[in-house]
Amino acid sequence: MSIRIAPSILSADLGRLSEQVESAAAGGADWLHVDVMDGHFVPNLTFGTPLIRALRRISDLPIDVHLMVERPEHYIEEYAELGVSVFTFHPEATVHVQRHLARVRELGMLAGLALNPGTPVAHLEEVVGDVGLVLVMSVNPGFGGQNYLPASTDKIARVRRLLDARQSAAALEVDGGITMATIGKAYAAGADTFVAGTAVFGEPDAAGAVKALRAACSVRGKR
Ligand code: DX5
Ligand code: ZN
């Protein structure tokens, strides 16, 4: 199974955005993870359209948007037009989850469903056929630099079993506290896509950090 590393722009130095993105790309980053927060769904406010537009100009890498906002459906059309590749939202943030997943897919983006640490996998069961990506949150969303919650490993394994049982080819992404010490566990449990903020942009050599994270999957996590 191929591994994807998705550095999170949340931890980048925005004053040197191009340089930081180029460095991540040089290290083999697969996607750029963009955390959109509205100060309501999560207690933090980050960025949106202007940053996504800037990233689209400076890099060819697929843009993986993680919406931590209420009513994420308001952004589906706009983000599709901006050239976003992955559109992931939280089921608690809206009402008609299946309808929105279908619309995201219709517009050519990968439709992602994010599960908070306290959100049961059952949310996924009902819509697994509409999902192109499952995002298992391994911290409570809102901030970078938090510690990986140990219970996430078992949850990743349960999601992996569900996807396999339903013959879903959806990507299984993990987000929060992914470091050289934790990535192997998440990989061994069945994740294939790894968001890393601090572990990439908190390092002086972002390119080297991306390479090291990828290598740590095969060294530490047997699958
Ligand atoms: C947290 C965000 C993450 C964050 C991860 O709410 O969803 O994407 O950037 O940061 P690290 O890798 O530092 O835990
Ligand atoms: Zn995220």
Provide structural commentary.
The protein is globular. The chain is built from nine helices and eight strands. The mean pLDDT is 97. It has an eight-stranded parallel β-sheet with strand order 1-8-7-6-5-4-3-2. It has one domain: Alpha-Beta Barrel (TIM Barrel). The protein has 223 residues and is α/β, with parallel strands linked by helices. Helix 1 runs parallel beside helix 9 and helix 7 crosses helix 9.
How would you sum up this structure in a few lines?
The protein is α/β, with parallel strands linked by helices and 223 residues long.
Question: Which helices and strands, and how do they pair?
Answer:
Blueprint: E1 4-7, H1 17-26, E2 32-37, H2 49-58, E3 63-68, H3 76-82, E4 86-89, H4 97-106, E5 110-115, H5 122-125, E6 133-137, H6 152-165, E7 171-175, H7 183-189, E8 193-196, H8 198-201, H9 206-220
Parallel strand pairs: 1-8, 2-3, 3-4, 4-5, 5-6, 6-7, 7-8
D-xylitol-5-phosphate (DX5) binds next to strand 2, strand 8 and helix 8.
The Cα radius of gyration reads 16 Å
Instruction: State the strand order across the main sheet.
Output: 1-8-7-6-5-4-3-2
The count of DSSP E runs of length 2 or more, i.e. the number of strands, is 8
Q: How would a crystallographer describe the biggest sheet?
A: 8 strands, parallel
Percentage of residues in strands = 15-25%
The CATH superfamily bears the name Aldolase class I
Helix content: 25-40%
Quickly give the structural class: alpha/beta
CATH class, please?
Alpha Beta
Order of helices and strands: EHEHEHEHEHEHEHEHH
From the coordinates shown, what is the CATH architecture?
A: Alpha-Beta Barrel
Termini gap: 10 Å
Helix count equals: 9
Small molecules held by this entry: D-xylitol-5-phosphate, zinc ion
